[in-house]
Task: structure prediction
Amino acid sequence: MAFDRLPTRDPRTVARDIPGVLDILFPRLAGGLVRALNAKMFTFAGISAIPPELIEKSQLQKAMLFELSMARAESELRRGTVASWNECLHIAARRQQRHFDAQIPKTLEPDDILVAEYASRNLVTMLESVQAQRPSSILEYAPLIPGLGWIASGNGDFAIGSTLIEVKHTDRNFGAGDFRQILMYWLLRYARAIETESAVWSDILLLNPRRNAALLIDYDYLLRSASASSNRIELVELLRSAVGQDFDRR
Result:
């Protein structure tokens, strides 16, 4: 089949908007498992959750608001100095323009900057704490998520050593959609690793700077718990079968 004639979707979109692709692979990824995973969340010392009343004062879309904080945090971690807010806005706007419902502001208000700076500071502290525990590992930005079939390649948020790091700025616990996304990322990475003998991630660290919440999960445990006891090869073959079908006919 000529996949280049099919519409492609990035891994994040597939996991979020087309959950049926992964429901076949992970039928046990339901409320009970999600609650059990979230019961293991932890917090970081020295930071606090962003007060909801501060967030409500900002008139920006939440996605744009926290994209700003990501751009700010990345600039500090990469360069050691923070980018200007105009530069952060330019970066955030470019990223958000991929979404059809994105609302791009022309300027930032003080309330926007206050929340974005709060979230940025929390994320930097979280990542620096993680890196301090693994001084021999380098923090990787936007790790590649390989494509497969009609699923296009994409990028994660961060990685360090064998740990993938994904950042979520939600006002709730981590949900089934978040776990579908990180499972999709691992399967795509593993499918490529089989061909290239490259390394795969052994665990996933979910961070929520908005709530000062984090969750570290062993990938093997998550794969076993969410699937019908399928092994890695079986899961990859199921995924290959799912993405080998014409998307337009789904």
